[in-house]
Fold:
Amino acid sequence: MALKNLFLIWFFLFFLWGGNCPEGFVELDDNCYFKRHLDVLQDFIDSNTSLKAANPLKIGYQEWTNNRLTYLYLGELQITTLPDSIGLLKDLNSLDLRKNNITGLPEGLCSIYPYYSQVNLSDNNICPPYPFCFDYISNQDTKECESFKCPVGYEELQGECYKNSHIQVLQAIIDSNSVLHGITPLELGKNIGYQQWENGKLTHLNLISNQLTTLPDNLCTIYKNLKLFDVSYNFICPPYPACFEYIGHQNTRDCDYSEISNNNIPENIFDNSGIIISQKGLEEINSEKFQNDLEILQSFIDKNESLNGKNPLEIGKQEWWNMRLVSLDLSSLGLTYIPVKICNIYSNLSTLNLSNNAICPPYPGCVEYVDFQNTEDCVKYVCPDNFSDIDGECYFAEHLKILQEIIDNNPSLEGKSPLEIGDAGGMQNWIGGKLNQLILVGNQLTKMPESICDVYSKLSVFDITNNSICPPYPSCIEDVGFQNVEACFHSLSCPEGYVLFDEKCYYFDDLQVLIDFTKINDSIQAYHPLLLGYQVWKNNRLQQLFLDGLNITKIPVSIENLEHLIYLNLNNNKLESLPETLCNIYPHFKSLEITNNLLCPPYLECFDYVGHQNTENCEYSFCPYGYLDIDGECYFEKDISTLQDFISMNESLTGRTPLDIGVQKWKNMRLHYLYLGVNQLTAIPESVCELLSQLKTFNISQNNICQPYPVCVEEYIGEQDGTNCP
Structure:
């Protein structure tokens, strides 16, 4: 409590003193803005007469997050020029420049595209050649261009350029499916489904319910680059192209399963929620198991008169995935008997619905309870152990208990029974006497008990949005949806362990770490802890922390208390050492960036490497084993060796050093971007195959490469000038 009071006093004094903007930020209209981002907006104004005299904060539509520009719409403003400084907008998520008069692009744009930002340049007058990060830019008025033609590797269709290889894939889909004959590649999916292209490259392909029966193998050449691909609800029979684990729900009733062997069965399958599940430990999926599932369906027919004469595949509603029955709905079919064989596949079924029949207990051992049965003709019915009888139906006692706890914790539900909650705005759904769905939207709830976690993972739907639930929330719930939390703070109090600022509760231990940062670093002592860098809080816990470029010299030992932290950026500071306690949370990080500091080796044991460091004042410096020191930087030796192989095999690169060829980007000493287009290459080394798995971008198009070349580069080969090939 003493620490909390100390913090409140500090907070009061901060604002009493006036609290100027942090270093690197400027104050405008009583708000702080990142100066570099404002400078870029001013550069836009200075370089475009249509924007003269405009206020940087008033041009277009802008969104700022934590004082940094994250969204910029400058459409329809007669802009002609983009400033070179545009590459400084590293925090930008989206840049929209459609419908202007732009004729050229600065190379600096490639600093934010495509890794950082979505960039829309449609409906301008941009003439090729484009910066290296763009093969082609769609929807441009090129009438004034000297001699526009589609780039190498693209073809013109209906006045636009489209990637050749992508058009070929669409044509192959048409050729391999007779139902599609007679349409053009760009018409594929037009009746049902859609295509989406971005700068001449296919990004979305939806072919749901197009009566497809097969997929061509060349689909794999573009599959991994598609943002969306959906061919579910067709008639596609396995085996599928090698790049697919599974292709969604297919009607495989007419497929010949005799061709399926253990050699071409996917290693992984999707469950009904779309989540990939490993096949390890599961029964092998093959034609024999398919037949077993059919036999179980036949046993339902044999034991129930109401199904006499039915085909096993015609009873009820069924879902088959990878030749296994995964969902079975036999409700309202007049059933009187459940065959014991159902237990052989019960664990494979995501849904088994036998409700509204006349099935008498006892049920097979794997089926605890069956909903809504007409048991009038049955011997006296008793609910199974751990179930409670309510109005003649059985409900799992533990789930009823959880619902009762929700009632006990919320005055708005007083007087309700467990089965009645949700009536005001929502619903409950029970399957086999167990809670399957719980929707409590708009029920004026103020608290959700921790016990909900005992059932949360088993619910197919859980929704508590539009209530007034105060934090902290149950540990299992990542997103509680919109909550009206005004009432949570009216008494200026937060739950134990939390403190209140600006009508929000923050976990005090996390705030204390931020305070510790300010205490031990002179450069940020005047900072409000919640204005320190860029922060993302989720459920009142610090999740992301960006402290780049703040001249920080020390990291507090207390950093280990940031148990929910997954992103930490400490680039471009003056750190000379790292506390060992950082290793206690390091395994939880999705990203930890600490480059461009003054760290000297040896580094903490939990770090393989810490990125580029200024080691001029270090007593000694070395690269880790397997890495090379080149001009004071460490590079992975095998990556350098592969680049050297390119030089050795190509006369056009003679005299170059490995770091000088093409356009390269390195991250944590590993090469992750390599552009070697238009370099007069004639050969590709085999060693590149090992490199490809880590590269985000690899481009070798528009060279003179002859066959044979490594198989691994076939999808990257693009257009080549084979004039001099044997």
About this structure: Residues 394-438+447-463+472-489 form one domain. Confidence is low (pLDDT under 50) at residues 1-19, 258-286. The longest strand covers residues 68-73.
